[in-house]
């Protein structure tokens, strides 16, 4: 038995999940300038359980391919600035166990 | 798809499958739509399935369903950083028929359950997203799917599309939820040898245990952690109100790692291998957050109607009961040939009169109360731990001296009064 590692990273966690990503995103930042000018905390980059929101200097990168489709970003965005849809039928996350 | 159905059920989770199963069994022509590759592929829960409500749909399901373990022990750990006060009940009556509850893995279980609905005659179509309800003259008459020529019509549409019920929202049945009305749960399935699980959790073959974690498991934020035993895996997770994660700027997966590395937990999961990581929202706004659940030609069930009892970690059972009552109502409406809100309202009345509505009402203020008063979790639970440590540490001080110290630890007379008031208020919101 290997010794339990102290902390597992989000990348390691995401690696355990099966995704059947669509070619286009089901998540859209409605107004990019809001993230840049009105949202110092960019809290979506913190609470998203798959860390799909990443701030890249001047814009929000949305790695929709790893989305768990939980809905937190739609509800938690302080500016209601995320357009959230379900991925096309049969696409997106595929849970095998839980 | 030009054929018309008696009912279209959107979403193959516990609520939708229960409804489709009973509708088909009652002779209705029913279509069950699922957006995932298979039922269960989008569905997440900690893992406890309640026997009674499931048996109301399929008697003696436990003789054939893919279950993990019947639960014989339920533990509650009140955790501080390096300690825990634990309450538990273990009873052998739960280990035999008719059982109390079981752990399940949803991807397996939901497929089996959906298959039972199909055997009754329900038509299951996977990989299909419902984009909107088709509304004519204020009445829901069908759904628009993301398939080519994807309009399908029915006398009644049942929305069982889960916590993110964009459909109920677009009908104006409820507003967008606030971050303090939903809990974000993350969990992992950990592989561990069956024998090791049984030794470590003091279980025999085909016995399981659930542990609910309070206090330091969520770093004092309103929420709970859990650790459940499956056959040869463990389910470990933690859920907190989304508003709590936002307020404290905590990453949910780091909180999960914190729970996994907690000294009270790490020894239980040691040597296990993570198999899958899952995240999901739980509707925890309770009775006050429930929107409309009935309209002309439409019924809302399960998580889509906020049916969760957060205090008792119940949800799938409420979902199943809502699905069953919706089916019963639709069959009556079919007989009467009337699918107006007036007739379908029978569902709402039956639901609210029964245990679902009673429990929703009983705990209607609890989430809000504990959210507004974080000291239950970040002060009183540590206090309880210190009191236990003081009382049970044998160090030459008399028990009277120890009691005095515990009493002093409770704070000034004013703080003691506040605590007494808090205990009374906590009792009031759950009584």
Q: Give the uncertain stretches of chain B in residue-range form.
A: none
What's the arrangement of strands in the largest beta sheet of chain A? 1-6
At the first level of CATH, the class of chain A is: Alpha Beta
Tell me the β content of chain B.
25-35%
Structure summary, number of beta strands of chain B: 17
Please, how many helices of chain B?
15
Looking at CATH, the homologous superfamily of the largest domain in chain B is: FAD/NAD(P)-binding domain
Name of the CATH architecture of the largest domain in chain B: 3-Layer(bba) Sandwich
Fraction of helical residues of chain A: 10-25%
The helix count of chain A comes to: 4
Q: Which word captures the global form of chain B? A: globular
Domain 4Fe-4S ferredoxin-type (chain A): 58-87
Family (chain A): To ferredoxins from P.putida and C.tartarivorum, ferredoxin I from A.vinelandii, ferredoxin II from D.desulfuricans.
GO molecular function (chain A): iron ion binding; iron-sulfur cluster binding
Keywords (chain A): Electron transport, Iron, Iron-sulfur, Metal-binding, Nitrogen fixation, Transport
List the helices and strands and how they pair.
The complex is a heterodimer of chains A (98) and B (431).
Chain A: H1 10-14, E1 18-20, E2 27-29, H2 32-37, H3 44-47, E3 53-56, E4 59-62, H4 72-76, E5 82-84, E6 92-94
Antiparallel strand pairs in A: 1-6, 2-5, 3-4
Chain B: E1 4-10, H1 14-25, E2 30-33, E3 48-50, H2 51-55, E4 71-80, E5 83-90, E6 101-103, H3 106-120, E7 123-125, E8 130-136, E9 139-145, E10 151-159, H4 166-170, E11 182-191, H5 194-200, E12 208-215, E13 223-229, E14 233-241, H6 242-248, H7 252-260, H8 266-269, E15 273-283, E16 294-295, E17 298-300, H9 316-336, H10 341-353, H11 355-362, H12 366-372, H13 375-392, H14 399-409, H15 413-430
Parallel strand pairs in B: 1-2, 1-10, 2-7, 4-12, 10-17
Antiparallel strand pairs in B: 3-6, 4-5, 8-9, 9-10, 11-14, 11-15, 12-13, 13-14, 16-17
